[in-house]
Amino acid sequence: MTISGNDIRMAKLLFPNITATPEHYEGLFPQRGLTAGAKVTRLAPSPTGFIHLGNLYGAFVDERLAHQSEGVFFLRIEDTDEKRYVDGAVDVIISSLKFFGIDFDEGAGPDGDTGDYGPYHQSNRTDVYQCFAKHLVERGCAYPCFLTEQEISEIRQAQEKRKENPGIYGEWASGRDLTFEQVESRVRSGMPYVLRLKSAGAGGTIHVEDGIRGTLAMPENNQDVVLLKTNGVPTYHFAHVVDDHLMRTTHVVRGAEWLPSLPIHIELFKMLGFPLPVYCHTAQLMKLGEGGNKRKLSKREDPELSLDYYRNEGYHPNAVREYLLTILNSDYEEWRRANPGKDAGEFPFAIEKMSTSGALFDLDKLNDVSKDVLLGIPAEELCGFMAGWAKEFRPEIAGLFEGNETYVGRILDLGRSGSNPRKDLICAKQIFEFIRYFFDSYFTAVDEPPPNVSKADASAILKSYLDTYCHGDDQQQWFGKIREIGASLGYAAKPKDFKKNPDQYKGHVGDVSTVIRIALVGRAQSPDLWEIQQILGEERVRQRIKNCVPA
Ligand code: GLU
Predict the structure, then answer these.
(1) d(CA 103, CA 106)
(2) Count of C-beta atoms within a 10 Å radius of residue 122
(3) 314 CA to middle of ligand 1, Å?
(4) What's the predicted TM-score (pTM) here?
(5) Which end of the chain is more exposed for a tag (fewer CB within 10 A), N or C?
(6) For residues 414 and 536, what is the distance between their CA atoms, to the nearest angstrom?
(7) Pocket lining: 78 vs ligand 1, CB cutoff 6 Å
(8) How many angstroms does the Cα of residue 263 sit away from the middle of ligand 1?
(9) Residues taking part in catalysis
(10) CB-CB neighbours of 451 under 10 Å
(11) CB-CB contact of 287 with 295 (8 Å)
(12) Torsion sign over Cα 421, 538, 441, 395
């Protein structure tokens, strides 16, 4: 590359205050002294206030790649777009990711930056970008462009007419031809300008190895893309190239929506003389829409795209993590079946095993995974989790869980032991609805007694039940009494007797126990009623029955 005196003058004119050189930064941020093969990854969200499943999905990939290889995983905040900046968004990003088990080794943190490769907020790196932008100008690889919006739109119209690709490139890039003097007088008169790359692309094809997708053949970039906006702030293209180089990122994991701009980034790395990291473009998160067609998850249509959704509903982070692993690597489920007790961190995750065609996200599947995961969490621990969830999202019920581990633990453990345990606990919100009848102030009757049981019979059943109830009865004695109560009122003691001679009975013992069940738990279906009574305690059992017997 020839260095011309004019380019040097131009660089000085545009960046009069930038004295640091690229070498300065290269020395400040040397190669990381990691073991061979260690990967350095980063999550680079924009603080828009919306943290979504795609962020978490990518974060898992980053986290696994780094930590499986004894590398480093850091958080960089891409906050160069002031219009999209939302106050407090950085804290939300950090706390949401932390909740789901994503911990960073360095980068932006709740109490400021940690690590030797910062600053980690792009808004604090303006001088660094300007230094490298100046370097490009000095080498004739970037130039100021004074085109107004109006002029750019006229160019677009002319290109449309001539059926040429849109954009500022080649003959359309009139700023390339300005002399130093022309630039100087415009700059001095305060005309706004952007800094553009002087692309060297000539319509060829480039080949690049994507960590997930293998070899990609793409058209070479020929666009004079904007590097610095009129306010001197860098675009994503330029900022991430400078940052990922200086922060010594080895693997750039990001969504497939960035694939089309990959040729720009490759050219930028080349122009700056930086080695290319391994780009890993993850598949878009899809869901099955109406008619069975796959479609992209959308912020507007799909509340489950937001991470807030999972926290609000009270999904346990282990369940979300476990589920995401099933869509991240196709052989995860097989591994899990072979290693039921192992920590998910032991799974040999590999980017080569990731889907490229769209990862299908399915809430029903998440719920199934969650049922299994919750089964492996001890009931008292689950109670603590419920308390944490309630404190944040349902403060009025937090007291039901806090300090109440023994009672709630027994409730959650109902039917969870043995060879065929119940698997119906999914998330905190659903669990609360499921067990709310155990708490007097949240108990309501939702079901009606069976239609074949008259009101008078229902009262008679409950009255006899109360008279004969003995809290110390074992399960058999207890059920024997229900049979007797039923038989005395004309209900078959066994369902099969009723089936044989339906005309001889009003119903069977099942109808009788349903009447009692509804009085005690408000529903026609529930786990084992005898066990429920043991948890409720004698006093509460008697009171609930009494409440249903007319005085
Ligand atoms: N700030 C970009 C985004 O939020 C990051 C893309 C990347 O990871 O490079 O989409």
Answers:
(1) 9
(2) 24
(3) 28
(4) 0.87
(5) C
(6) 12
(7) yes
(8) 16
(9) 299
(10) 8
(11) yes
(12) negative
